[in-house]
Each structure stands twice: as structure tokens, then as C-alpha cells.
Amino acid sequence: xxxxxxxxxxxxxxxxxxxxxxxxxxxxxxxxxxxxxxxxxxxxxxxxxxxxxxxxxxxxxxxxxxxxxxxxxxxxxxxxxxxxxxxxxxxxxxxxxxxxxxxxxxxxxxxxxxxxxxxxxxxxxxxxxxxxxxxxxxxxxxxxxxxxxxxxxxxxxxxxxxxxxxxxxxxxxxxxxxxxxxxxxxxxxxxxxxxx
Length: 196
Description:
By secondary structure, the protein is an all-alpha fold. The protein has eight helices and no strands. It is extended, with a radius of gyration of 22 Å.
């Protein structure tokens, strides 16, 4: 019965009838211990993502990532892992996104989104470095405010220095990530040259 609801939901989804698809996927989920549950949840998450309801999509996707049922669906897990990373990127939660992107590319390197995900890892590190740099600048500006005690001023300066180190570390991570991707692409090009 779960499979029937899933197929029905997928057919409605293909016909762009999102409400009917959603209802069918929800009915599918109500029947536990089938591989169709995680597949249906994945499509419900896609629907929320398309509506820009990223927080809702993330909640649904994380259910798939925590699924330890005997009917675990590896394909739904793989798709959910990559999609979770994209949702986190949209939410600008870069540290969590890096974790999911690295996990996804390590577990599923042949996924069609793997190269893009590896590029996004470097970009997320770069954005984290940017964030650290902005926090450093803010701390430095605050340290120059009048009326601070020497101890308060030094604390702000030390915090700014710490942010600078963190920013440099993130930039280093970004460079390593981009370089590893460039090296791999060069190796692939050497093995399979582009046709004329």
C-alpha cells in the first residue's frame, strides 16, 4: 500500500499537482517500515525547498538522515544528504553545510552533484573566512571606542586577533579544497581528454 501511495504521489508530482502529491506522500509515510517512507519524505522536502521553506525542508531531510529502520533506503539517504547541504547553504549555515558536503562527497563520490558539492565546500569555507574577517573588523572598531578600560580594550584586541587567525584558517581550508578539486579535474582531463 505504501508503494501505491508513493507511486501516486510521484505521478501527481510529475503533473505539477503539488497538493495531491503531498497528500499521497503523507499517506505513504503513515505506513511505517517500508523503503517508500524515506523516498516520500525526500519529495516532501523538495516541495518545501521549492516553496523556499528551507527550515521545514531541513527538518524533513534530517529525518531521512537519522532513519535507522531495517527498510533503510540508501538512494533516498544519498539524495537527502546532498539536499541537506544545499538547504544549509541557502540558510547560510556554512559550517554545517561543509560537514554535510564533505560527508556526501566522501560517501557518494560518483553522485552527479559531487563536483559541484566539492566546489561549494571551498566556497563555504571562503564565506566562513569572510564572516570571521567582518567580526574581526567590528571588534577592532569597538576597541577604539572611547571610555573603555585598558582591560576591556585588550580583550577586544585579543578577540579580533583570534578572529583573524580563524579567518586565515578558513581561507587556507578554501584554498586546499579548491586546489584538490583542480588537481582532480586535471587528472580526469589527462585520462579522458576532451574530444575535438
